[in-house]
Amino acid sequence: MISHLEFRFQRGGGFTARLLPDLTPETVDAVRALLPLDVTAYHTRWCGREINFPITSARAIPREKQTATANTGDVVYWTEWEIGDGANEALAVYYGAEIIRDHRGFLPVNVFARVPEEQWPQIEEIGLRIWQQGTERLLVVGLEESER
Questions:
Q1: CATH number (domain holding residue 36)
Q2: Least C-beta-crowded within 10 Å: which of 84, 115, 125, 129?
Q3: Bridge-partner residues for 29, per DSSP?
Q4: Residue 121: is the preceding peptide bond cis (ω within 30°)?
Q5: What is the DSSP letter of 146?
Q6: Per DSSP, what are the bridge partners of residue 90?
Q7: Which residues contact 86 (CB under 8 A, 6 or more apart)?
Q8: How would residue 75 be classed by pLDDT, with cut points 50, 70 and 90?
């Protein structure tokens, strides 16, 4: 079973994140079902040090242990919860501690994976590159524990 996500960026570099099924089991299952993802990664403008990319899940992902704060290395799922079907959805990786918000105020998210501290410099390097140079293709694949 997939226990980690591997993020591979077009201009080089990458990192892995450990899934947190004990914290957010339905979010983890939904993300596993989406893999592999070949997407465009963006840098946020509202939430600070965040790399994000849109997704379209096959089923509604419920609110699970939500927070409006992210720590370095957190990987989160976000949707426009109040809209329901057809709402925008995204996954995001934080390379700094941030309050998650947009022009409407705080945005609750499900934290479903975490990048280990020893890889935080890679997240920051990639995040700053996307912020300064623009969007970038990203491949996200699942890894089983034995593949790490």
A1: 2.40.100.20
A2: 84
A3: none
A4: no
A5: G
A6: 54, 78
A7: none
A8: very high
pLDDT at 116 over 90: yes
Domain containing 29 equals 2-147
Bridge-partner residues for 105, per DSSP? 102
Residue-wise pLDDT for 15-36, tens only, equals: 999 999 999 999 999 999 999 9
Residue 103's closest CA among 32, 62, 60, 44? 44
Which residue matches tokens 């990987």?
A: 75
- In angstroms, how far is the first alpha carbon of the chain from the final one? 12
Q: Look at the chain and report how many structural domains it folds into.
A: 1
Per-residue CA distances from 4 to 17, 98, 103, 138 (Å): 5, 23, 33, 16
